[in-house]
Amino acid sequence: MSEFPEFQNLLNRTPEERDQEFQRHGRLKHLIFGSQLTTELLDRLCRSADMIRRLARDREGNAELRNLLPNRRAMLYFTQPSTRTFLSFMAACQILGITCNEVRDPKMSSEVKRESRTDSVRMFSSYFDVIIMRSQMANLAEVCAYMMNDLEGTDRRSVPIINAGAGSDEHPTQALLDMYTILRTFDFDESSMSRPSRLGSLQKEYPDLTTGAANKVYAFCGDIKRGRTVRSLATVLSQYRNVTMYFITPPHDQLRIDDDLRSLLETAGVTVKEFESLDEVDDGQPILEKIDCLYMTRIQREHNSDATEAEIASIDLSPFKLSVERVAKMKSFAPILHPFPRDSIVGEIPTEIDSDPRAMYFRQARNGMWARAALLVHLFDVNEALMDAHVRLFPAAVRSASSPSRR
Amino acid sequence: MSEFPEFQNLLNRTPEERDQEFQRHGRLKHLIFGSQLTTELLDRLCRSADMIRRLARDREGNAELRNLLPNRRAMLYFTQPSTRTFLSFMAACQILGITCNEVRDPKMSSEVKRESRTDSVRMFSSYFDVIIMRSQMANLAEVCAYMMNDLEGTDRRSVPIINAGAGSDEHPTQALLDMYTILRTFDFDESSMSRPSRLGSLQKEYPDLTTGAANKVYAFCGDIKRGRTVRSLATVLSQYRNVTMYFITPPHDQLRIDDDLRSLLETAGVTVKEFESLDEVDDGQPILEKIDCLYMTRIQREHNSDATEAEIASIDLSPFKLSVERVAKMKSFAPILHPFPRDSIVGEIPTEIDSDPRAMYFRQARNGMWARAALLVHLFDVNEALMDAHVRLFPAAVRSASSPSRR
Amino acid sequence: MSEFPEFQNLLNRTPEERDQEFQRHGRLKHLIFGSQLTTELLDRLCRSADMIRRLARDREGNAELRNLLPNRRAMLYFTQPSTRTFLSFMAACQILGITCNEVRDPKMSSEVKRESRTDSVRMFSSYFDVIIMRSQMANLAEVCAYMMNDLEGTDRRSVPIINAGAGSDEHPTQALLDMYTILRTFDFDESSMSRPSRLGSLQKEYPDLTTGAANKVYAFCGDIKRGRTVRSLATVLSQYRNVTMYFITPPHDQLRIDDDLRSLLETAGVTVKEFESLDEVDDGQPILEKIDCLYMTRIQREHNSDATEAEIASIDLSPFKLSVERVAKMKSFAPILHPFPRDSIVGEIPTEIDSDPRAMYFRQARNGMWARAALLVHLFDVNEALMDAHVRLFPAAVRSASSPSRR
Known about the structure:
The structure is a homotrimer.
Chain A: H1 8-11, H2 15-21, E1 23-24, E2 27-28, H3 39-55, H4 59-66, E3 73-78, H5 83-95, E4 99-103, H6 117-127, E5 130-135, H7 140-153, E6 161-166, H8 172-185, H9 199-205, E7 216-221, H10 228-237, E8 243-248, H11 259-267, E9 271-275, E10 281-282, E11 285-286, H12 287-290, E12 293-296, H13 306-313, H14 324-328, E13 336-337, H15 361-379, H16 383-393, H17 398-402
Parallel strand pairs in A: 3-4, 3-5, 5-6, 7-8, 7-12, 8-9, 12-13
Antiparallel strand pairs in A: 1-2, 10-11
Helix pairs in contact in A: 3-8, 3-15, 3-16, 4-16, 5-15, 6-7, 8-10, 8-15
């Protein structure tokens, strides 16, 4: 943490104190931590994402969307590569009329001339209206948000900072899109007026089924410890009532859930269970039959030391891979998620699964675009203009879309 | 071909069967092969390109063009570098209001995380509305088009694929822009109402001259075997009546036309002749005096093995280079084309030729922009909106532009 | 200079003769040299920059600006890296509705296929409407401008060239933005109707103070010889009456002002004085108290030979660094400028200075965007449309903004 000595006092505070700095009057100024995603904010962002998705279906709706933020220019500062997050943010900006700019190669930047990172980011804030950043440095986005707050406090130019992945443990917009996918799936089309309700028919088979993220069993399979998306998503899900989480990992310390996250979840009231195969049994019933939502992950070999590499290479990964047979045992509605990319050599999700209706991972990727666009609408405070456009084009849909039916 | 085992059955079919999959009701769904460019389709695309070119001349026409596809986002996936093709597609998209995104550096993409190429392309299709791709892998564009067809068949999101150069033998949009340049040149301004006809005066000197691509002598000079543009263009030209082709190449197996292409052309009715110098004679007349269109190429040294490099280095290339004297012998209307870049060290076209009215290579490059824009208009099915805009701004030009005078 | 033998005659002429080729009827065709920035042109560009800045403040003004050049596409050809200049030009283009394209990696371009640089640039001119270029080759931008003039002379397509940094001594748009910052600062809000005049109150403390760039003491501190921005700016400033310049440099031949620039400035009537510390005295008074404008620079280590590196490393740089104490001695209005990036290790401007009202370097960076947008407005000849938009939105501001009060 000594990289930013002038911000050390701010960085030493509790998570709650730090979260507090990034919002104002219940609205985000910056998105730095997953913990900023309260259930209330998630509901609002998901409603916006729904409206954006619906408007984007036709030419006229697209024109309305592009008219929301045509006067804004974004900087995507991605010194840690990530094609998917990068392109998804690009598309989200373009949908809203925001012009995109990028700096990706750190060698291209002025850092070779010994410019400080904070000078670089302040330079970006001179030319652009939002900075979306992904970095190996754990605290960079947070520190930049403090710098922006300082500038704002002295009436100088300040812009929102979005953390698009920092260091090893924070990736709040991934948690946002995962939650959007979960909430959309567990809405069971209740908010749609144009289609018949699915919930009624599902309840014949699963009598206890409810809409929303509460009262569910979530399973996370694969590389739990090093997958920052799992950490962010599990933390956000822990806010909901009556949640059980299964962590299904190979027996290796670099992959299993760490004690820190486990106790955080249990303190929040989550029932946490660990397994070493997708075929295990819980309370006399195969876990595959009990899971309401299955989150698959890739073993992140790029983080391995040579020793760990050898150890993990010797593990049989077949208990952590999906197959047609395993998917057949799952509940008929249970979404299969994956933050992608998937490993085409290990094959934790073989391509045969792709055509199964439970395979939500491609839709999840596309949801990233809608969820990130919703975040930008929120940060630039154009929700009302979005709602106006939506009412104009879909007058009938309004009652349902604005009803708080998600939890 | 074993790179895509799951698509092997599809790849094993005849060219005609494969072409068939990429169109529907006489309209292209994807452009993968040069053989999809029928004379009828070329006529339609060239008429669109003419309209786009005319509209792009002024501010009002440009505004009409940008209003054709403002709701579309393109992905330019160029893992094989090509500045010219890339920039020309960028400009074509921008003319039509399409927003561009790019992935060029394969190291930047998720392939380092062992994502399959098809997963990458499906991810692009989640965020973007057309994928323009150039790759070292011969079948990648074709396979991606099959994948899109599969998705469409099961009511999932599917987008058009454009092959912007694949492996060593296909570059259909280069053939398209070459044909646009040839058809524009051999139109002799017949379709223009604003200028006097050139054909009449040219016929005093060349009594047999006709408009259109038929009844012509085409010469290809330089690196025939390894220039995929020559292969694509010659194949497309073989559809026209009464065509003669001269292939003027150094005496080396890596440069001469291969038997495969030769027999394909002859089967289509083309008269094929080979020469080893631009100064040779055919039927008692210098070939330079008989050529109606001269297509120059660069010796592609980057494909050479060390042995071939040494052999080719020992060849005298002067018989394959233009000079002011040689150009002076050519017909007054005969266009000189070159797919560019030209080799500034070999100098197959010295810069002194650039100001000759027959030097069409810079205009040819600019035509790439109009022809590619016309292709995008076709794929997104906005021809009618283009024609409407053209009628609005150029009411007098309509009769000629829509008359089928090109062949 | 033998890199462009065909242009050698043109390159051998006097600076005045060469400048003459890049303008027509008092308007720039290309911006290649700082010497093209006459005081009259600077006044016009600064007035435009003011209007653009004011319009960019709100959504409606932004829409007017984006409507000035939506039919134009720019190529940013930056083979010499420069994040700041690059992004500033991108933002300037985007403000005016210009679509941006870029070529930055020379390995990506056709040069690997032995295409000449002039062919590359002519290719860009086929697809794009202005070429903004930065290169290690001192004469490339100049030569490209000659090529464009040739094309124009023979009725072929020609586009404006902007030199965004060439070789070691020209960076005219940096001089433009520096001058815009200086003229804005020394306007003392006289042209603003909405705020009370600052000049009157300042004159109580500094009785000789006048508006404009004339009658001032400019100090340049740090790396004078190798900083092309200093050379360009000092030359432009030498056009104004009664100017004194202090050059404060470490005692090393690679850093001190060279005789060439010194005699050029003295011939133009500038009083030139050299110092070896910010704490020196001139005419019995500390120079810090006499400076009206302080231009700090970074020691450009990347240009050092190993020997020079060792010599410079042994120099004590503390006399050339700002501190709170030194700034406290400066005049209350005197702007501190820096072309950026600043060196975070040497610390020629410590971050404690950033909140001082005299610290203008971040505003200077942002001014680069307005000044470059003004240049584009000038080159594309849409000043009148800009003035019309400004009158529509700010009817009251017109009289002051159009009054020639800057000198």
